[in-house]
Amino acid sequence: MLAKHFPLVGLRLTTPRLELRLPSPDELAELGELAAKGVHDPSLMPFIVPWTDQAPEAVARSVIQYHWLRLGDWVPQDWSLNLVVFRDAVPVGQQTVNGHDFGVTREVSTGSWLGKAHQGKGIGTEMRAAVLHLAFAGLGAEEATSGAFEHNVSSLAVSRKLGYRPNGTKRCAIRGNLSVEHKMRLTRADWERHRRVPVSVEGLEPCLPLLGITAAQTR
To answer: Which residues cross the membrane (predicted)?
Structure first.
C-alpha cells in the first residue's frame, strides 16, 4: 500500500463542513479545473508568485504540477503540505501548511486559495482553523505565521478572527507595481483563546517522521 511508504496519503482533517486531505489523481484534476475558473478578481493579485496570470489551461496544469513537485521534493527538514479542501466530496480550494526545520523552530506558515464560487461562506476560516489545529494540537507547534497584501481584506479578516496579530510589513514588486504584504503571527496562547472550530485529525502518528518530529515532541 502507498500509505506504508508515504503515510501522508492517509492523513485526514475534518471540520463540521470540510475534509482536508491529499487528492486522488482525478480529484487533483478537478482542483486544477476549479483554479482555471478563477480564484480572485483579475485586477488584483493576491499572490507573491502570480501563478494565476496565465491562460486557464496553464493555470490548471500549474496547480497539478506544483502539487506533484512539493510531494516529490519532500524532506522532513523542509516540507509543504498542500491539502485539498473538500465540501460534500467536491474540491473547493487548497490549504497549505509549511514547516522549515519544524522540529527545532516549532513554527509553521500557511497559505490558501478558494474557487470564486465558494468564497464569502466562511470556508476560508474553517479550513485554516483545520491546519492550525493540526499544527498546534497535533504537532505541538508554538507559533504560526501568515501574510496577505493590504488589498486582500478577506484573508486578513480570517487571520484576525483566528487570533493572529500584526507582525510587520514587507514591500513587494507584483506585476511591476508596489504591493505591501502585511505579516501576521499567531502564538499558541492566542490560538487557544480563539479556537472555535471543532477539528478531528486521522492518520497523523505515522506521518510524524516525515514532518521532522517524534511523538514525544508533540506533547
So the answer is: none
Handedness of CA 126, 194, 186, 101 (dihedral sign): negative
Q: Are 49 and 129 in contact (CB under 8 A)?
A: no
Domain count, the chain: 1
State the number of CA atoms in the 13 A half-sphere of 110 facing the CB. 31
**pTM higher than 0.90, yes or no?**
yes
The single-letter DSSP state of residue 138 is I
Q: Determine the Cα–Cα distance for residues 139 and 142; give it in Å rounded to an integer.
A: 9
**Separation between Cα atoms, residue 12 and residue 22, nearest integer Å:** 8
For residue range 35-87, list pLDDT tens digits in order. Answer: 999 999 999 999 999 999 999 999 999 999 999 999 999 999 999 999 999 99
Helices 123-133 and 153-161 cross at an angle (nearest 10°) of 50
> What CATH number corresponds to the domain at position 62?
3.40.630.30
